[in-house]
Specification:
Blueprint: H1 2-17, H2 19-39, E1 46-47, E2 50-51, H3 52-60, E3 63-65, E4 72-81, E5 91-92, E6 101-107, H4 108-112, H5 116-132, H6 136-151, H7 158-163
Parallel strand pairs: 4-6
Antiparallel strand pairs: 1-2, 3-4, 5-6
Helix pairs in contact: 1-2, 2-5, 2-6, 3-5, 5-6
The structure holds zinc ion.
């Protein structure tokens, strides 16, 4: 309930500032949820070390029980952000969680740049960090797999894949 209130407050604040911005974040979540739900029957109970039930709950309910972090956690969505992390990322997840809360910071440029498909991919990717930690290769591999299972295609992320040294990781793109 606390989380829902936080999300609603965040969305309402954004809405007051810019309806288009709030819509972009909400649409990205709706698109990510739709893609995940299409992919879920083929994901099993874990994929690339991501607990699928925890991922579903984090994405759709904003709270989850975590075998990775231990205990129950809430996702605190912060929209329209412009803090220091936003200089490098459109969205990011400060880790580790504190006091049972994992912030998902969505920067201002998230809504102002890119495409709906990229925004969907970003939410799918960041939610891996929320439930399974900082590994970039895991997050990219999982998000690409969800895209592929849901749509038959996945966003090419080769440059990012190589710049993070993922070729030598335990993960792979579809
Ligand atoms: Zn990442």
């Amino acid at each position: 309930m606390r989380l829902l209130t936080a999300i609603l407050a965040g969305l309402l604040l954004s809405l007051a500032a810019s309806p288009a911005r709030a819509d972009a974040v909400q649409t990205a979540f709706n698109d990510a949820i739709a893609a995940f739900e299409q992919a879920q029957p083929q994901l099993g109970t874990t994929r690339f070390g991501v607990d699928i039930a925890a991922y579903r709950d984090a994405l759709t309910l904003g709270q989850f029980t975590s075998s990775h972090w231990g205990g129950n956690l809430a996702v605190a969505l912060e929209t329209g952000a412009s803090g220091s992390g936003c200089a490098r990322f459109a969205a990011y997840v400060p880790l580790p969680p504190r006091d049972g809360v994992v912030p998902l910071v969505v920067c201002r440029q998230f809504s102002e740049e890119g495409t709906a498909a990229l925004r969907r991919l970003t939410i799918l990717h960041e939610m891996v960090h929320v439930v399974a930690g900082a590994d970039e290769c895991r997050a990219m591999a999982f998000a690409a797999e969800v895209e592929r299972l849901a749509t038959g295609r996945f966003t090419p992320v080769d440059r990012y894949w190589h710049s993070n040294g993922c070729a030598g990781s335990a993960f792979s793109l579809p």
